[in-house]
Specification:
Elements (H helix, E strand, L loop, with lengths): L15 E4 L10 H5 L4 E8 L15 E10 L11 E4 H4 L3 E4 L7 H6 L8 E6 L20 E11 L8 H5 L6 E2 L1 H12 L7 H5 L7 E2 L16
């Protein structure tokens, strides 16, 4: 499942945070399983440990990053070790603004203060991930997640994003139908539209998502030519 701005799952539940000791490589096996549920673990295993503010992931900065997401060995649900997403396999970075609620809380907190060029392993409990509802077929409710991430770039300005509205609007009529959104998720992620997404996006409940309502990245309004 790809984590996109169109399918954000933001949880505001409080939880403890444990910063793992910095080291090259990470302990596996029983040590991984012993990490307690309900706590966020960050293990920075490669790259700079300190940097200027210009290269540091602080709230409000825009990050370009790569990640591989799997179900953690300690998870009480899901297939342990199963990969559910990888930006590296898609060949494109995931770009977002940190500390603004655009991503799951485990990322918004776990990536803070990492430097450009750093690599880290982050273990995210369900309370800071996708909670009891899960996300798609590969992330069941209550799953503890493991992300191996690399911070590619940190900037003050947002990089230009893809025009997802135009990509989803296959009939080019300037509004999205349920069928178009469902087909997009099936094609890109292999599963259907996340629960609650349509209700959240179709704000005026007219059965379509307009360009103005659309919460994902988008270009110019339909019909506007530069």
């Amino acid at each position: 499942m790809k984590i996109t701005p169109l399918a954000l799952s933001v949880l505001a539940l409080s939880t403890g945070i444990v910063l793992a000791k910095e080291k090259r490589g990470g302990g596996a096996g029983s040590k991984e399983k012993q990490k307690s549920a309900g706590r966020l673990h960050i293990d920075r295993y490669w790259g700079p440990k300190s940097c200027d503010d210009d290269d540091k992931a602080v709230a409000g900065k825009h990050l370009k990053m790569h990640y591989i997401g799997t179900i953690h060995a300690s998870s009480k649900s899901g297939e342990k070790g199963k990969q559910f997403d990888s930006s590296r396999e898609r060949g494109e970075t995931f770009d977002f603004q940190i500390g603004t609620g655009q991503v799951i809380k485990g990322w918004d907190i776990g990536l803070l203060n990492l430097c450009k060029g750093a690599k880290a392993k982050i273990i995210i409990p369900p309370e800071m991930g996708y909670g009891d509802q899960g996300a798609g077929q590969d992330i069941p409710g209550g799953a503890t997640l493991h992300f191996d991430i690399e911070v590619i770039d940190v900037t003050d300005e947002a990089p230009p994003g893809p025009d997802l509205f135009k990509e989803i609007d296959t009939d080019e009529n300037g509004k999205l139908t349920k069928e178009e959104v469902e087909a997009f998720f099936q094609e890109k992620h292999g599963n259907g539209m996340p629960d609650g997404l349509w209700e959240n996006e179709d704000k005026n409940k007219d059965g379509h998502i307009s360009w103005e309502e659309f919460g994902g990245t988008k270009g110019d309004p339909p019909g506007v030519e530069l």
